[in-house]
Amino acid sequence: MLSTANFLTAAQWAGLTTLAFAVLAGLSFLFQWGLRFRLVGITGFMGVLTVGLFGLGLVPFTRTVVPGAVRFATVYDSGSTQTVIVVPSSITEPQLLATLQQAASDMFSPGRLSRGQDQLTIRARTVLHPEEGVSQPLVLGQVKRSLFVRDDQEMQIDLYRENLAKLPPAPSAPVQPG
Description:
This protein is of the alpha+beta class. The chain is 38% helix and 22% strand. The chain has helices at 4-30, 36-58, 93-106, 161-164; strands spanning 73-77, 82-86, 119-131, 134-146, 156-159. The chain has a 5-stranded mixed β-sheet with strand order 1-2-3-4-5.
C-alpha cells in the first residue's frame, strides 16, 4: 500500500514535470510553435495532478485491522450519527465484539454531521429466517464512539446476549471415519 511519503515523492516529480512543461509552453509561444496550446493544456493538467498528489501526501492513510473481526456490510448510514451494519448469522460473541470495533474504526470520518450529538452509533444486525418466506432482522449489538476523536478510547460497546442466544448453532464438523 502506498504511504504518504510515496505520494509526496510523486508530487515532487510531478511538480518538476509541471515546471518543465511550463518552460516548454513558454518557449512554444516565443517561437510560435503549432502545438503551443496543447502544451498549455498539458501544463494545466500536470498542475492539477501535482496538487492532487501533494494533497494525498498530507493525509495519512491508516486502516486499523482488528483481529477476529468478520466481514460486514453497511446497510444504512445517515451520514451523521446513525449507522447499521449486517453480519452473518453464524457470528460468535468474540467475533461480534471485534467486528463492532472494526466498524467503529472504519466508519470514523471527520466529515460526519453531528446534529447536536457527539457520538456515532453503529448497530450490528443479522437476518434470521424462522420459516420459509419470513425474514426477521435481529440487532445483536451496538457501539457508540466519538464523532470527533479518531482514536476513541472510551467507546461504549453493548452486546445483546439475549439476541445472540437466538442465533442458530454453528454447524459441527462432520465426523471422519477412522
